[in-house]
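Model: You mentioned two targets. I'll fold them one after the other.
Researcher: Yes, keep them separate.
Model: Target one:
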Amino acid sequence: MPEARGLGVGSALLAAAERWATSRGIRYLSAGIHHRNVDAVRFYSRHGYTDAGLSLGKRVD
């Protein structure tokens, strides 16, 4: 929902997920987003996520 952007909901949810993970001893989180989704890349980058390498995939029909 574009009208929900900028209200802090995503940031609050991400912060809660990070607290949950930390409380359970999880030390690394990964965001599975497509590199062409510039809004998602910007969002996660703003929250400290960085390029963590390469993920390969193959479409099978």
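Model: Target two:
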Amino acid sequence: MLKAVFLLVPLAITSVGAIISPSQLAAQELARSPISLTSDVKIERVETGPNGTETVKLFTPNDIAVVPGDKVLFTLQVHNSGTEAVSGFVATNPMPAPVRFTSVTEGWADVSVDGGTTWGKLANLKVKTNDAAGTAEVERAAGPEDVTHVRWVFVDPIAAGAKKTISYRGVVK
């Protein structure tokens, strides 16, 4: 069984990203890994038809003017093109600066609110901020606006030939 760890980095809202390695070892593993990631970004808009029926439509960011309040869907396709199962697969995606996190599709995914140092479910995470007077540091519950990264740790091996789709959502600030 092979082991793979990836960090997916968005380059801009129009391009979810390129695969990079977090270390020299991961770069070597990446070169040998049969796991590939393809990513897609769509802007979700609700359009009302002439009869008043609302339809959700997905657009690429290059096809429309992206504006604050637009909903964004980030989708990652994980594919094991090898002949062996791959274990220990981890995909990490930083939140693009112009997007506020809203949700992740997979209940087993974790988020970070401190740049990827600490991971967990959003409801269990805390952030430190200054009080209203700016004189003391206080701790508060983390919210969607605090999310800096989304991470998927695949507990089960990814079978040879298997394809899996993972996704998360945000809104343009």
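Researcher: Noted. Anything on target two?
Model: The chain has one helix and twelve strands.
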